[in-house]
Structure formats: C-alpha cells, structure tokens
C-alpha cells in the first residue's frame, strides 16, 4: 500500500517542512539523544504521566514524545477548521433535537432504535434544554489523512475528550528546548486554550446565576489516569478542581465545601461519566458523584459540561449519520467526510464484511482506546477466525471500515528519522461562540508499519504546528 | 479555598516535618548506640526510641530482632510503618499531587524530585546505604521543599495551612524527642547529671541540628537546664516549643483576619491560650512540675488545637 508522506510532494520537500528538514539534516546524532533525554526528564519532572490499565508495573508512565513536529499550512488548516466547526454545530443540533421533538427521526433519516435504545441516551434529561442549547461544549474530533486533500473523520468525542494537556505541554516543551525553531517558523500559538475554555464555560452559566459564574472541574480523583490533565486545566483556568465529596446540594443549588463555609457553584466541567454523576439518578453505588445534582441541573440551578446524555451523539453507530445531520440541520454539504462504514446489523453490510475480513478494520460499537478491534491486514489467520466468531455471536455490536492508508510524517527513530503513521485530534469549544485553537494533538504509531496510534498500544505524541501566513 | 485542598496542604506540611523527624530519630539512635550503654545493651535504646514514636509493637511484630539493618529498614523505608521517612514523603507527595493547583511549579518540582530520588534509593542495595546518607538525603530534600515554599508560594490562606501543619508537627516532634530523653533514655534517677546524661543531651541537640545554635545562645557547658530551656522556652531557637507554637498562633491569626467574623476561630483561641500558658512558665517551674508531666500537657494541647483546626476549617461548614 502507498502512504502519503506529509513532508513530501513527489521527491521535493514541501514548503511548510522546508526549515524543519534542514534542522533535522544538520542535527548531530548525539545532540538529538541529549535533547530526547532532556524532554523525557522534563515530562517526568512536571509529572505528565498516565496510567496503563491492567498491566501492573510502574503506575507513572510517560507517553513517548517525538520531537519532530507535524506541520499544517494555512490552506490546509482553514479547510479543517471549517469542517470541524460545521461538524460541532451539527452534533449539538442533533442533541437538541433528540432530547426534544426528534425531527430527524420523524423524517426517517436516522432509525429511532439507534437513538432511543442507545445506552448513552439519558431519559432523565428529555425535554431539558441546557443554556444556549449546547450539550457538548468540548468536542474532540479524530481525523486521519490519506492524501494531500483527503481528510476523514474517524470518530467524534462529545463527552469528555482527553489529551488537550498534551497539546499544550508538547508545545511548551518544544518552545523551551528549541526556541530557534519558533523564530524561524511562524507558528500560530495554542496557549490561549485554557482561557477560551473558561470563557466557554462561563458563557453557558445557568439561568439562575445572576453574577459572574463560579466554574469548577469535577474529577474522579487522583487515581484517574487523566488526573494530571484535570489539575493542569484547573490551574491554568484559575478554577477549583473538585471531587464529588467536595460538592453538596442544598435546596436549589450546588455548593462546594470551603474553608470559609459553603460556596455556590454555577458551572461544572465534569470529567466523570454520566452514570457516576448522581447516585440518586443514575448508578446508586457511585461514590464519585453528588447526590441530588440532577435535580438542580434540571431546574436550572447548575450547568453541567458536557450535558448529561451528550454521549448519544458520539456513538460509533450514530457516527455514520453525521453527514446526514449536517445536511438535515444546517442545509450544508459536509466539508469533512466520514470513513466508509459498514454497520453489521444490516444484512448486506454483514455479508460484505464477513467475506472481506482480512482487508478490513472491525471495531466494537462502544469500544475505545484501541481495545477490542481487529486490524485485518495486520492479523494472523487465527486471530481473524477468533474475531469472526465474536462478530457472529453479536453482529450488531460491530462496525467495519476499510483499512485506511494513514498518512505518515517524519519521526525520530533509533536509526535516525523515518515515516510513521499519525492521526489528529483538534479540540473544538462550543458556548456562545464556536472556537478552535490552531493545532491539536497528533498521535503517532511508533512501531514500524503500525496503524494503531493509541497510547495504550505503543503510540506517542508530537507537537502540531499551524503556520501563519 | 476548598476544605479538601486546605486539609491536603495542612497534611503535606505535617508529613514533610514528620519525615524529617523520623530521619532525626534514626540519627539519634545511631549515635546513642555508639555509646557504652546503660543497661541491657543497644537493643534497649532502640526499643526506647521506637516506643517514643509509638511504633515499637509494630516493629516487634514484623521484624522481631532489633538489628541495625532491620531498624534502618523500618524507620526509613518500610511503608507498613506510617511514620517511616518513605511513607511520610510518599504521603506528602500524594497530598501535593492532589492539590497541585494550589502549589507553585517549583514546590511541586522539589516535592516530586524528592519522591523520584526516594524511588531510586529504594532500588539500591541496602548495604550500600548508610544511615548518615539517609538522614542527609531527608533533611536536604525537606529543606529544598521548604525553601521552594518560602520563595514562591503566595502568602494566602493556603500558605497559612501549610505552615500550620509544619508548626504543629514540629511542636509535637520536639516535645516527643525531649520526652524520650528524660522519660525513656534515662530510666533511673542516679544517672541525672552523669557524663551519660550530658552526652545524651548533646545527641538530642545534634539531632535537631541545634548543636551550634545552642553554643551561640548559651556558651559554655551543656547542662540539662539550659538545653531544656533552649528547646522549650527560647524564642530564638527555631525548633523550640515556644517558637513552634508561636508560629502556629501567627498562622491561625492570619486565617482569622483573612476570613473575618463569619468563620469560627476556636483553634486560634485555644492556641492563644496555650501560648499564654507556656509563656507564663520559666524552666525551673517546668522542672518542679516534672518534665514528663509538662510535656504530656503540651502534647495534649497540640492535639486539641489540631482537632479544632479540623472543625473550624476542614469540614466545609456543613
């Protein structure tokens, strides 16, 4: 298979990469090793670590950081930006609709079963319209590239997409280690993100909040693998990082316990999942949430970001209908395409997929993190047959996609520099305005030939540049 | 400030100070065992020290034999011993991680580096580590954290909670170390004033890094009365009961001023009262009262203040 290398056009180095290419070529090998060690030291000192589940070992693990940035020029970025914002608007319109009149279902564009019987559909919030009608305030859209102008959306993340701290820290570390690169290249900044996030949250304060809203980040606690990110964002936004035990409901409002007594909370950016939010409404055994929170939410005493129930929009089964949503709600043509997807609960699709398993990527509808999936071309016959049995047992739990020729970017490896496959997750903010900082998180599959970029499967991260004109 | 944040800052301070105390305890023990001993051999002295820190039963249960290696392992590395250096540093770092938003990056850096260094030491062969190196590592690390706090933290309520933790823990630790000296180490009255007595006082001073300061303050010979005065009533001595309590009161006053009338001040009121009571004594009165009796009273006061801090600030008014 041929892969698009983002650095080259034919044999020539593309303009956005010109100075980087020089930089790499003139870099002595020992200097590179020294800098790599320095970068790792910085990550460990700052404490940017994550936990890998179920493997034991050191709980404080680093995500491998690749010093070779990935670059977009203005033309590429503008198209991505328009496409991402368009998608974000459509996803929120869809959420407003399915918790309201359900026009898109009445119109027969999406099967009712996929929405109303979806696990992520929260009956508890039907008819509750959050401030400004926004359900998902931070949308992470995973993109892959297969050619110069071919970008595809792999999935949408409407609940609590993580990784934005890596976008910010990768940049911070690159600027600290290689300031001359930032003088040579005109790179759009990303460090306004926390400020924009705070403004976004304040813009969706609940109706009962009359003064400047008090925002907090709600974390499951310091054992969570993304805890660093939670505290990092709270710090940069200047808001409190709270756990469920710090909050309580009294009458119409939510309060946090402070050294000066109770203080009212207006907007909660929650990094815990719906089922854990309120033991009185969802899982009764949850210790992470706040009893009574949903009553306050429903009566307009507090905003929850993302709104409970937002997850129904980012389900892999709903994903196939996003282009339809864009046409239905916005009357526009989708700027970014979906990857062709076969849904195995349809007979024709099922037959096609079962006949072509070795060429396809098959995923669980509710899976994440690169677990529970089959990459046909990279699997042995036995692996394929084992997976086939799982699919046969429960076809509606799976979707399939063609194996994409994911683009590559140059990446530092043991022997020097070599192409490795990458994806991209930009973070779109939705409040009174829709905002997107120029950049995102680029994940890179560090193993030669690997197409799986998840950090739990040996992926690393890169700084992502958008060049200004 | 969130009550939980305040609680973590308070306990971060306490645990850092406690790690320091554990390391000093190891140092005292080491030095005393180098002396020709009093009664039943060095095991007896180690046992006394462990008793003073309230961990003798735990040690006996887990190790049995009080060999030097066992004791070093227990006081420095053992996570089953809640007062070990490693356990305290780990808890302090954990608290710091939970409230990272309330710490400057320099403080976190110092705290995190201490922990990373500790992890490295844990992987080393024990025979390659001597007690002096362990003590030095601990005092140097906790000083670095302390320095970072002083140099970079905002002087806000969080600062008061941290320093309150340090102050109360330090007052408690000095009191306990003194108590070890008279109540445990020197079990029979005829030793008072002997060479052994003086030597033990020297060790106590040394373990508090106060050996030289003592000479600056008093000059001349080391006498029980003066050392006790230095460690209890001297306002210049950084680890004395008076200084530690005074600083705790100062931090509680700061909180009371900052928070105004709406927040209860029972901890501040109690601490003021204890300080006044301490200041009304001189060293002769304390010896007449009985050193051990006096120290028991003092340790009780510190416990009461700590409980009131909890009630005033750390429950969140609900």
TrEMBL record, chain B:
Any one Pfam family match given in the protein's UniProt record, by short name: Alpha-E
Signal peptide (from-to): none
Record-linked InterPro entries: ATP-dep_Glu-Cys_Ligase-2, DUF403
All copies of domain DUF403, residue ranges: 1-314
Stated name of the protein: Alpha-E domain-containing protein
UniProt source species: Paracoccus amoyensis
